[in-house]
Specification:
Pfam families: BTB. By secondary structure, this protein is mainly alpha-helical. The chain contains 15 helices and 3 strands. The chain has 2 domains: 145 residues, 2-Layer Sandwich (Potassium Channel Kv1.1, Chain A), CATH 3.30.710.10; 114 residues. Strands 2-1-3 form a 3-stranded mixed beta sheet.
Length: 261
């Protein structure tokens, strides 16, 4: 099954459960939200947020009400720069800021990973009685993505391009792997292997460390992932031996490496 225009419309129809948009339009552009808040409160934007060279003039109270991170950092400042180690793109922050004003998020397979990571990094747990951006993105992953193999593959590829944050914040890569390898038809393993071809040794170590910590009762799934990673390219066994230092897999990988050469 492939993602088509009809899939996108279906995703759009699911947005009602992911926040209620203003009645005037299906989505609220950030500037409209800022202007509406200014008019309603009589207060002009009082903080400038810089993200990757792009400036956003916003209201502190709005950001602080949705983000624990901003609550700590915006109290006594009028300018603030989101910089490493927070890796947030300007386009993603614009969507996040729009959510802060409208309490509505347009979530799709293509922006899910970036939004989920940012929601976690900015500690967007919301307030009592409202679904936070973290909760909305997690619900979308569980209710829309994880039940559709095509969407799983799309999100998996996106998560791999945003390692290590995608795994360290929400275990997105490993959860996609788990869903793909649980595919009874076997096609999931092929999709998983195709994705793993693009992962660096450092990236696979992040995923493996995460999986080792999460799956403490059994490491069979982790063994399968490592097998797939090396089978994608036998040269990795030679070039990445230094990476094979996971305590749980060390003996198996080292024993196989000479044979697989």
């Amino acid at each position: 099954m492939s993602t088509t225009a009809s899939d996108e419309r279906e995703v759009g129809e699911n947005m009602k459960s992911l926040g209620s948009p203003p009645l005037s339009s299906p989505s609220s552009p950030l500037q409209s939200g800022v202007d509406a808040w200014t008019e309603a409160t009589g207060r002009k934007p009082d903080v400038k947020i810089q993200v990757r060279g792009v400036c956003f003039h916003l209201h502190k109270d709005v950001l602080v009400s949705k983000s624990g991170y901003f609550k700590r950092h915006l109290t006594r400042v009028s300018e603030f720069t989101l910089s490493p180690p927070l890796k947030v793109a300007a386009d993603t922050f614009k969507q996040v800021a729009d959510f802060c004003y409208s309490n509505y998020a347009v979530i799709t397979p293509s922006n899910l990973v970036a939004l989920r990571i940012t929601a976690q990094l900015l500690e967007m747990d919301g307030i009592v009685g409202e679904e936070s951006l973290r909760e909305l993105t997690e619900s979308y992953f569980r209710e829309v993505v994880i039940v559709n193999r095509t969407l799983i593959c799309n999100v998996f590829r996106s998560s791999l391009s945003l390692l290590p944050e995608a795994e360290q914040t929400a275990f997105l890569s490993s959860r996609c792997i788990e869903a793909l390898l649980d595919d009874g038809e076997g096609d999931g393993a092929v999709s998983c292997a195709d994705g793993l071809k693009t992962v660096s040794p450092e990236g696979i170590k992040v995923i493996a460390d995460s999986m080792q910590g999460r799956y403490t009762a059994s490491h069979d799934l982790l063994y399968r992932v490592i097998d797939l990673y090396f089978l994608c390219d036998n040269n990795r066994i030679i070039n990445s031996v230094g990476m094979c230092k996971f305590e749980v897999t060390c003996s198996r990988l080292v024993m196989r490496a000479p044979h697989d050469k």
